[in-house]
Design brief:
The complex is a heterodimer.
Chain A lengths: L16 H11 L5 H11 L8 H14 L2 E7 L5 E7 L1 H25 L4
Antiparallel strand pairs in A: 1-2
Helix pairs in contact in A: 1-4
Chain B lengths: L1 H12 L2 H24 L4 H12 L2 H10 L4 H19 L1 H30 L10 E7 L4 E3 L3 H10 L3 E15 L5 E8 L2 H5 L4 E4 L14 E5 H7 L10 E4 L2 E9 L11 E4 H5 L12 E6 L5 H18 L8 E6 H41 L1 H9 L4 H37 L14 H25 L5 H6 L9 H37 L9 E7 L8 H16 L4 E7 L10 E5 L13 E7 L3 H5 L3 E4 L13 E5 H7 L9 E4 L8 E8 L14 E5 L7 E8 L7 H11 L5 E6 H7 L2 H35 L1 H9 L4 H34 L11 H27 L3 H7 L1
Parallel strand pairs in B: 4-9, 6-8, 15-20, 17-19
Antiparallel strand pairs in B: 1-2, 1-10, 1-11, 3-4, 3-7, 3-10, 5-8, 6-9, 7-8, 12-21, 12-22, 13-21, 14-15, 14-18, 16-19, 17-20, 18-19
Helix pairs in contact in B: 2-3, 2-4, 5-14, 6-12, 6-14, 6-15, 7-11, 12-15, 12-17, 12-23, 14-15, 17-23, 17-25, 17-26, 18-21, 23-26, 24-27, 25-26
The chains are: A alpha+beta, B alpha+beta.
């Protein structure tokens, strides 16, 4: 017996999760801000709704830490866009963060799972 | 760390590039979305609108992304202040009024606080100054009189509460043999006096412990200034001989410049050499004791320690003063006592002025913030957070108050220069007043406080900002926020009330000053020249010699053209009191040991009363026969006579000098004269006993010369006649008496002037407040007024409308003020003279003055209301 929230209500990003998810999205290859947002929404089945007001500052923070790098490129449909890619440092960080978050999710799941 | 470096690098590169990048990136982002939307079959316009809506607040996103690169707090702060300065420049009139008001408030406060800092707060520059005590004796009735030499010796040897203890007394001696005879002021001390006051020898040596004993050699130390001015800084002065009062002293050293608390003595003598031979415990000179408490010991404990010594002495060496105890006073208190109430009153007054200034400014800010509601609403609609708005308002308040604070410090600087120029003598330590660190800290603190107040007032008002409502309202009507208006009314009522308190207090002081100036003196002060002389002991050894000298001098002066009369006294009027002593009335019940009455004493020659034109109420004055072996007689003043014989004549009664427990002659009262206050013009006359000079001469006398011409013209002639009588006799002082008398009111005049100034300042500020409030009130009601006029209302009705509003404010203010003023009377009571502090007349006057000022301030808004042109006003809107 539990009160389930409206499944259509988008989830908010927990502190630090947006950064990890951005890194994960770039693992597949360089992408621009809009693309990253789209990717996250798609992959999460629209559980996450990416707010540009959070996405852009998060990208700047990742740039500062040297985990990603940015470059102006022309997109497949001949539009100029700013593409972000993972740096080696970012790749290492993603590995570390992934295992950390997996442990976190597992632990949460074990505790929250209904008994028996 | 890496993050921080990235930020620093970015900061060094400049952020313009970052800004452009972000701008372009977001444009590209939007483009992509628009393309997608079009691909899904939307029109370009619809595609763009949807893209923009989906993206959210682009400007805010950009700002926040940029924010990731800034050293957030500091940079935001700078940005806030840049914006604040811009906002202030946008409304220069408003800003100037605010800054000027704050300048006045902060300036006056800083100036008065710096006086308080120098006089009341700053410790004396002596080692362990906060533990220094001046100790006198007390008989439980009179406090702090001189300590006898023997008592001091016992204290210093048997007490355990002090690090160091010294005794000192002032002295005056005549220096001869160095050109013109010179009146020199010295201080007679024991050796520890120097270490207590941190004095060092500049040449030679100071006194040593053996010189605190009887039989010390006749040596003298010179003060630095005396050595420079009188001895031409002679480096070989040590070992030279000085003749003081006809007795040779060897110079043993020069004392380096010291802090000017004990005056700047011309010379120092050894107390052991002067008093060492004393054997009676009741032999009083004018010795006081200076001592430094051991750390962490209370003054009460030290007093108990000294009292135990006194009690022990009373057992082993009983005498007439066995009831005497020690009476310590913190040294710093001595210079503060008299001025404290005056300064605290002024600080209170100036604090109220600041409160009015703040109320004014708060009112202005409120008025503006209610009209600024719209601006705030717009800013919050385009994404400024509430915190951001508050920060913005705070920054504006702080910038305004800082400008006011800077102006205030400058104003204080000039005020202090003026203050020092105006009144160098009536305030102790005045020359030390500076804008030092504590004063500047004080100014900074009140500046910050007013800044916060300014910033937060509108925040509290706009707490519930309803964006939609504020945007829908028209710009002018949004100013009629009822919360702000109510608070402004309250502020102005408060201002009027506080102003009334200040006006009332200064009116009391002004009336006191007038009363003091017009108080019946009991003598005629005009055409009077006062010649102060002090015959040196060395050359005037016998009483006969003293009498002879003054007798000859007086008859000589009487022959001068323009001289009407000459009389001498030991204590001229308003000299501040020349010492009181015990007495008793034989025939009346003997008073207890601690209830012996005291009276002022004076010694006068036979022609003194007539020279001064004092009134003889009963009996006779002194005559030429009251001399030598004639029976001892005395004249008393009216206050004395009425104290003891309110219903009968005092003449014929007797006075026992010294009271029942101390040896002294018994006088027969032969006359009663009118009261003349020894203390000052603004003091009631105390009981006073006059003794005949011819019988009991005093070496130090003031010869009062009554003239028929301008007394100034006689000074040089008098000077030459004194030199003729004794070329080795220095003139202590020669001055037109009215000038001396006027100077005794200097401090009262000074505090009255300042308080009146503050009251005036308060009135101006309150008037500005009333004007501002009413002017604003009228300006937002111009349309209402126009309608009334259009409907046929008379202009006079409009004026009445505004006037009644002003009078409502004034009435509320005056009522509050009267309550406050009654409370404030207790604070000024000690400074009030000759009028009742609760004087209803003064209160009524003050109330009418304040009402008048309010009416004046209301006149301009009323006139403006009257001049509203209904046709144009209604057409415009």
């Amino acid at each position: 017996m539990s009160t389930v929230e409206d499944p259509r209500e988008p989830l908010e990003f927990l502190q630090g999760t947006l950064e990890v998810l951005i890194l994960r999205s770039l693992q597949l290859g360089p992408n621009h801000a809009y693309g990253i947002g789209q990717f996250l929404e798609r992959q999460s089945d629209s559980q996450f709704l990416v707010d540009n007001g959070s996405l852009y500052p998060a990208l700047q923070r990742l740039l500062q830490r040297g985990w990603i790098a940015a470059q102006w490129k022309t997109s497949p449909n001949a539009r100029r866009a700013r593409y972000y890619r993972l740096t080696p440092l970012g790749r290492k960080q993603l590995v570390a963060a992934t295992s950390k978050w997996q442990r976190f999710v597992e632990a949460m799941g074990r505790i929250l799972a209904p008994e028996g | 760390m890496r993050e921080w470096w990235a930020k620093v690098r970015a900061a060094l590169r400049g952020r313009r590039g970052l800004n452009d990048d972000l701008h372009e990136e977001i444009e590209a982002h939007l483009d992509l979305v628009i393309q997608e939307n079009i691909a899904q079959g939307m029109t370009p316009e619809a595609a763009r609108t949807l893209a923009l809506r989906d993206f959210g607040n682009a400007a805010l996103t950009r700002e926040r992304a940029q924010g990731a690169w800034s050293f957030t707090s500091l940079e935001l702060l700078l940005q806030e202040f840049r914006l604040a300065v811009r906002a202030i420049l946008r409304s220069p009139g408003f800003s100037l009024v605010v800054i000027a008001t704050l300048t006045l408030g902060i300036g006056a406060n800083t100036a008065i606080f710096s006086v308080i800092d120098a006089v009341l707060l700053r410790p004396l520059p002596y080692p362990g100054a906060d533990r220094l005590l001046r100790i006198g004796e007390t008989n439980q009735k009179v406090h702090g009189f001189s300590v006898s030499w023997l008592n001091y010796r016992h204290w210093s040897q048997e007490s355990h509460s002090f690090e160091e203890m010294a005794a000192f007394e002032g002295t005056r001696k005549t220096l001869t043999g160095q050109g013109e005879a010179l009146a020199a002021r010295g201080i007679v001390v024991t050796s520890r006096f120097f270490s207590l006051t941190g004095a060092r020898p500049e040449l030679g040596r100071l006194f040593n412990e053996t010189e605190d004993q009887n039989g010390a050699p006749d040596v003298v130390l010179l003060g630095h200034e005396f050595w420079m001015e009188r001895m031409g800084s002679n480096p070989n002065v040590v070992g030279a001989t000085l003749v003081l009062d006809g007795k040779p002293y060897q110079v043993a050293g020069v004392v380096a410049p010291t802090y000017d608390f004990f005056g700047k003595p011309d010379f120092y003598m050894s107390l052991g050499q002067v008093h060492g031979a004393e054997i009676k415990r009741s032999a009083h000179g004018s010795i006081r004791v200076l001592a430094r408490l051991k750390p962490n010991l209370s003054m009460a404990a030290a007093k108990a320690d000294l009292d135990a010594v006194m009690q022990h002495l009373a057992q082993v060496d009983p005498g007439s003063e066995d009831e005497h105890r020690a009476y310590p006073v913190p040294l710093a208190e001595l210079s503060r006592q008299q001025i404290r109430s005056t300064l605290l009153l002024l600080m209170g007054a100036v604090g109220l002025v600041l409160a009015i200034a703040c109320a004014n400014v708060a009112g202005l800010v409120l008025a503006r913030s209610t009209t600024r509601t719209r601006e705030m609403a717009i800013r919050s609609a385009i994404g400024a957070s509430r915190l951001r708005l508050i920060r913005q308002l705070l920054a504006e308040g702080l910038v305004l108050s800082t400008l006011g604070g800077i102006g205030g410090i400058a104003l204080a600087y000039w005020c202090l220069r003026a203050l020092i120029a105006l009144e160098p003598q009536s305030i102790p330590r005045l020359s030390e007043i500076t804008l030092n660190l504590p004063v500047l800290a004080f100014a900074a603190a009140i500046t910050l406080l007013t800044g916060l107040l300014l910033g937060l007032t509108p925040v509290l008002i706009t707490r519930k900002l309803d964006v939609v409502f504020a945007l829908k309202e028209s710009p002018t009507s949004s100013g009629r926020s009822s919360v702000g208006q109510g608070l402004r009314n309250l502020l102005v009522v408060g201002e009027i009330g506080v102003t009334l308190v200040l006006v009332f207090a200064s009116a009391l002081l002004i009336r006191s000053l007038i009363a003091a100036q017009n108080a019946p003196l009991g003598f005629a002060p005009d055409h009077l020249l006062a010649l102060h002389l002090n015959l040196p002991e060395g050359s005037y050894k016998s009483e006969a010699a003293i009498v002879n000298f003054y007798d000859r001098l007086a008859s000589d002066l009487r022959t001068l053209p323009g001289v009407v009369a000459v009389g001498a006294t030991s204590c001229p009027p308003s000299s501040g009191g020349c010492g009181d002593w015990f007495y008793s009335i034989p025939g009346l019940p003997t008073p207890g040991q601690s209830d012996v009455p005291v009276a002022f004493y004076n010694v006068v020659d036979p022609s003194y009363f007539s020279t001064m034109k004092m009134t003889l109420r009963e009996g006779r004055g002194f005559t030429d026969t009251d001399r030598g072996s004639a029976p001892p007689v005395a004249v008393v003043n009216d206050a004395f006579a009425r104290k003891w014989w309110p219903k009968e004549s005092a003449v014929g009664h007797q006075i026992k000098f010294g009271g029942p427990y101390i040896d002294g002659p018994t006088y027969q009262i032969v006359g009663v004269v009118g009261n003349v206050s020894q203390l000052g013009l603004d003091a009631q006359a105390e009981p006073e006993i006059f003794r005949p000079f011819l019988r009991e001469p005093s070496a130090a006398m003031a010869v009062m010369i009554r003239t028929s011409i301008d007394p100034d013209q006689l000074t040089s002639l008098v000077r030459s006649h004194v030199a003729e009588a004794d070329k080795n006799l220095p003139i202590q002082r020669l001055r037109v008496f009215e000038r001396t008398l006027g100077a005794t009111l200097a401090r009262r005049r000074f505090s009255t002037l300042l308080l009146a100034l503050f009251a005036g300042l308060a009135m101006v500020l309150a008037a500005v407040g009333v004007y501002g409030l009413l002017g604003y009130w009228v300006s937002v009601r111009e349309k209402d007024i126009a309608i009334r006029l259009a409907l046929g209302a008379q202009q006079s009705a409009v004026v009445r409308w505004v006037g009644s509003r002003a009078m409502n404010l004034a009435a509320a203010g005056v009522t509050t003020g009267i309550v406050g003023a009654w409370g404030a009377t207790r604070l000024v009571e000690s400074l009030v003279f000759g009028v009742s502090p609760m004087s209803p007349g003064t209160m009524t006057t003050a109330a009418f003055v304040v009402l008048g000022v309010t009416a004046l301030a209301a006149a301009l808004p009323a006139w403006r209301a009257m001049r509203v042109d209904p046709a144009r006003k209604l057409h415009d809107s």
